[in-house]
Predict the 3D structure of the following.
Amino acid sequence: MVLFLQQRSALDTDTERRVLAGILKKRPDRTVIITTHRPTVLPLCDAVCRVTDGAIIPLCPDEAAKLLEDWEEELSP
C-alpha cells in the first residue's frame, strides 16, 4: 500500500497529476490512497471516499467532484 498525504500541495496541479499517474503506472499491483483537496486527481482514482467524524463514506465520481469544488470555493480568498 502507498499513502499520499498533502505533501503534494507544493506541486502545481499538472505536475501533481503527472507524478501520481507515473506512480500508478509503475505500481499497478499496489493499493494507493491519496488525500487531496484538488478535484484534478479524481480521474486517476478508481474509488473516492469522504471521511467524516470517523466514518468512511463512498462517493460516486460526480459527488466527489462537486464536494471538492465546493471546498475549493470555501477555501479561496
Remarks:
- The chain has a mean pLDDT of 79.
- Residues 2-75 form one domain.
- The beta strands are 2-4, 32-34, 48-52, 55-59.
- DSSP finds two helices and four strands in the chain.
